[in-house]
Amino acid sequence: MNDSFLEALRKIVGIEHVLDSHRVSERATHFWDARPLVAHVLVRPANTSETAEVLKLCHANNQLVVTHGGVTGLVDGNLTTDQDLILSLERQKQIETVDPVGRTMTVGAGAILQDVQQAATDIGLQLGLDLGARGSCTIGGNVSTNAGGLSVLRYGMAREQVLGLEAVLADGTIVSSMNSMMKNNAGYDLKQLFIGSEGTLGIITRVVLRLRAATPVVQTALVACRQFDDVVAILGHLDKSLNGTLDAFEVIWQPFYKLNTDPTRSDTVSAPLSPEYPLYAIVEAKSAADTQNQSDTTFTSALEHLLEKDVIVDAVIAQSKTEAANIWYIREHIDIALEHHPLFVYDISLPIASMEQYVKQLQHDVELYWHNCKLFVYGHLADGNLHIMVAPPELTEHKMSADANNTDQNTSESVSRHKHWREQSNTYVYSPLQALGGSVSAEHGIGLQKKQYLALSRSPVEINLMRTLKQTLDPKNLLNRGKIIDINPPSSSN
Ligand SMILES: Cc1cc2nc3c(=O)[nH]c(=O)nc-3n(C[C@H](O)[C@H](O)[C@H](O)COP(=O)(O)OP(=O)(O)OC[C@H]3O[C@@H](n4cnc5c(N)ncnc54)[C@H](O)[C@@H]3O)c2cc1C
Q1: Is the CB of 399 under 6 A from ligand 1?
Q2: Which atom of ligand 1 approaches the CA of 72 most closely?
Q3: What structural domains and CATH numbers belong to the chain?
Q4: What is the spatial distance between Cα 24 and Cα 420, in angstroms, rounded to a whole number?
Q5: How far is ligand 1, taken at its centre, from the CA of residue 411, in Å?
Q6: How close is the Cα of 289 to the center of ligand 1, in Å?
């Protein structure tokens, strides 16, 4: 990258918002990866027009661009090389307008999810989107990954919260689709092109969000069950009997429950229910402010009914925000699992009816391949989404011995074994999904990590249409090149 290019960037965004590779390396790679970030340059445009000017310049100079929001993405969609220009949305975090009557909010794509949630709460409404990374992830990242999270059951995924957006194409063209209407069938709904396309078709700079009625009355419970059929029965009963207030239904298989309630560690919570049961579910209902007594009664009666029917073996209802937070900690705390090296992490979806058998088979497969392999499973069961972590123990030992000896040979063996084992684990997790009509990515996207498995969830016709869209909107293949799909797949490249 030549000096005149950098100079032109500085003219667009200001000197202090163009970070050279040295300053880039002072930043962390990722939310939980402390390694230095790599890129040729990082640019922080202040608004849509500066973003458009930067992209025009990149287009003229064939400069590769990777967009960064909060960098919490889990599929390497935000991964960079030293050839890339990082376009960071961190200055575009303004909450522009809030309309309590139309129930909409217009925000910059760099706005942090938690700040947007708070702004909605401040006017007595709420955003129907919540996820564990709320304090760091951005609305632009949420929309471009079509994030799911904890309230999908009730409000749908990020896509369902978006009424309009503004995006900049690879050549700097601004597509302003700042619709704020619930209904607008005037031709193609172009915003959908950018939702879930992980920054490969354009950079989202502004978003019009749909807001919902606030539901400050919250009931949270943890229940334990003996078998998977009971979990399904609980979901069915609560869905029916809680008058549409069921907000979250998270299932946790025993190993993950035990991990986060381990009494021998200081970074766990004490188990609200005995760890002897095979399955647990966190159920949460949320309703309007004036419904406290009625909601409490309905929630308690629904759980009592399930206890009487012996569908639930044990249950605890949170009596305070702290108790509720302790229950959620069991589901959201992943740090202990991350201590396993390596840990192969998955986000898949499949029909609820197939889940029990799928998990059993997976358990069988990984234990056969790696003696004493740990398998942690939990997920947003109601939307068919499971999160899976495969932790083979032997590699931990191997890595430690390689690190201790610190020889090149050991390191390269360790790397190649890690790769091989990841592929093996991927095969066990992904290959049954096609026949079950499931997906290799429920909510995290494809990025780089799942690219080779995309064909298990999308047909050749669908993948070719994706390529056509990419080539049409980004003919030079500059935006997030190589993420989701390759433009010249191996078979057709020369
Ligand atoms: C603790 C934790 C919990 C999580 N829980 C969930 C969960 O429940 N559900 C879920 O779906 N995900 C979850 N995630 C994953 C992640 O938080 C989401 O994918 C989130 O939407 C990413 O937002 P971000 O701003 O961090 O985006 P980044 O990580 O910065 O980017 C993600 C992708 O979007 C692109 N991108 C970012 N901003 C823009 C933009 N403005 N325009 C175009 N492209 C852009 C990037 O190039 C990249 O491809 C979790 C992650 C963590 C660390």
Answers
A1: no
A2: 26
A3: 3-88 (3.30.43.10), 95-213 (3.30.465.10), 217-333 (3.30.70.2190), 340-413+422-436 (3.30.70)
A4: 32
A5: 31
A6: 31
Mutation probe of ligand 1 site: the residue of 81, 87, 137 with most atoms within 8 A of C-beta: 137
Among 145, 385, 450, residue to substitute to test ligand 1 (most atoms within 8 Å of Cβ): 145
466 CB within 6 A, ligand 1: no
Nearest ligand 1 atom to alpha carbon 109: 41
**Gap between the Cα atoms of 156 and 177, Å rounded:** 21
pLDDT of residue 397: 53
Residue 352 CB neighbour total at 10 angstroms: 17
- From the centroid of its chain, how far is CA 137? 9
Does 126 contact ligand 1 (Cβ within 6 A)? no
Q: 2 burial class (0-12, 13-18, 19+ CB within 10 angstroms)?
A: exposed
Task: Give pLDDT tens digits for 390-416.
Answer: 999 865 555 444 455 555 666 777 788
Q: pLDDT for 184-237, tens place per residue?
A: 999 999 999 999 999 999 999 999 999 999 999 999 999 999 999 999 999 999
Return the percent helix, strand and coil in the chain, to nearest 5: 40, 20, 35
Give strand ranges (E) for 309-445: 314-317, 344-349, 374-380, 385-391
Cα 203–207–211 angle (5° rounding)?
A: 150
What's the rounded Cα separation, in Å, for the pair 227 and 223?
Answer: 12
Q: From CA 398, how far away is CA 410, in angstroms rounded? A: 9
Of 77, 72, 37, give the one whose Cα is nearest residue 334. 72
Residue nearest to atom 32 of ligand 1 (CA): 73
Higher pLDDT, residue 393 or 23? 23
For residue 145, report the distance from its CA to the centre of ligand 1, in Å. 6
Q: Taking the model in full, what pTM does it have?
A: 0.92
Give distance in angstroms: CA of 263 to centre of ligand 1: 33
Separation of alpha carbons 345 and 355, rounded Å: 17
Q: Is 64's C-beta closer than 6 angstroms to any atom of ligand 1?
A: no
Does ligand 1 lie within 6 Å of residue 224's CB atom?
Answer: no
- pLDDT, one tens digit per residue, over 162-192 is 999 999 999 999 999 999 999 999 999 999 9
70 Cβ closer than 6 Å to some ligand 1 atom: yes
Judge if the beta carbon of residue 480 lies within 6 A of ligand 1.
yes
Rounded CA separation 267/361 (Å): 31
Those residues whose C-beta lies under 8 Å from the C-beta of residue 277, and which sit 6 or more positions away, are 224, 225, 226, 254, 313, 314
Output DSSP code: residue 172.
S
> What type of residue is 110?
G
